[in-house]
Structure formats: C-alpha cells, structure tokens
Design goal:
single chain, alpha+beta, Gyrase A, domain 2, 6-stranded mixed beta sheet
Length: 189
C-alpha cells in the first residue's frame, strides 16, 4: 500500500438491498468522481444527486455523492461516499469505473489503517473498529441481531481509549505507526 494512491471499496455488505455505499479515499478521489459525474465542484459534506457514467459514457446509476475534504474526514484524506442502489451489478460497475480511472481496490481494514496513519484514530480505537466489524460479521452469518449493548460497550471503550493509550503504551505514536506499517507489509506481501 502506498499512501499516495486512491482506494475504493463497498462499505455495505455484498448482496441485494435498497441501498449500497461505496467509499473512495485518497489524493485522486475527488478528481475521479468529477470524471464519473461530469461535475467539477462538490461542496464539503453536502449530499449531491449525481448521474455517474463509466468510461464509455454508459449510465451506471443516479447516486447521492458526498465529499469530505481532508483532513476533516475519516481517513484524513479526501473521501467520497457514493450512495447507490444496492444491486451487486451496479456496485460492481461503480467500483470498476473508479478503478478504470486510477483507483484500486482497498485491502481489508485499509480505510481504518489510513485513519490511524494520519492520526485520526489511535491504535486502541482502530482495534475497536475491527472488533465491531468482526462482531457484526459473525451476527450476520448466524442471522441474529447485533445486541445494542455491544455497540454501546464498544463505543464507550473507544471513547476512553485515549486515556488508556497514554498509560498502556510507552511507545511513541510514530513507533506504533511504523510497527503497524511493517506488519501490514508482511500481511499484504
């Protein structure tokens, strides 16, 4: 992974649904969405109805596009969230169009990793996000509801993590980022 590239991934689970969200993050996120929509300007944090087309000019879908300019976004980079219809073929076409314009598929956890590397989350908060996603995944497999207490406890844990982080870890934030970066490179290859 290089921080200078643009990544894309669906934020909602795979399958048919009324709505799907695709997230794009990186230096080229806004340029890519501008090419797909033929719009040159998006207001920060304002949901905008846009018609998105592929490289050949074929309609992908009419979507709601929300732009979050960095560093005031989840990852600390420019982020675009696209709310589209939840048909897997529409989501696939949208992800493919972003990749055709210079994006690449994100690795699992890469959005949160970027948030950590850009100082938007500390290590404990990043681990809380992973635990929350993993728990949601297990509940979906078993087709059981996710208990509200779990969300409350996970979010409370994440909110107190800065204090925990100060006393638990004696390493500097830079050392933690380097260690995570090396572990990520070993994992990805």
């Amino acid at each position: 992974m290089t921080i200078g590239d643009t990544i894309v991934a669906p934020s909602t689970p795979f399958g048919h649904s009324g709505l799907a969200v695709v997230r794009v993050s990186g230096v080229g996120a806004i340029q890519i969405i501008s090419k797909l929509s033929s719009r040159n300007n998006f207001s920060n944090r304002l949901a905008t109805l846009s018609t998105l087309n592929d490289l050949n000019g074929n309609l992908i879908d009419r979507c709601i596009v929300t732009v979050f300019y960095g560093p005031n976004s989840y990852t600390g980079e420019d982020v675009v969230e696209i709310s589209t219809h939840g048909n897997p073929s529409v989501v696939g076409a949208l992800v493919g169009a972003v990749c055709a314009h210079g994006g690449r598929l994100a690795h699992p956890g890469e959005f949160t990793r970027r948030a950590f590397l850009n100082g938007k989350l500390d290590l404990v908060q990043a681990e809380a996000v992973a635990a929350l996603i993993q728990r949601s995944h297990v509940c979906r497999k078993r087709r059981e509801p996710i208990p509200h207490e779990f969300y409350r406890d996970e979010l409370r844990w994440a909110s107190h993590s800065r204090t925990f982080h100060k006393f638990r870890y004696r390493e500097s934030r830079r050392d933690l980022r380097l260690r995570w970066s090396h572990a990520w490179q070993d994992h990805v290859g």
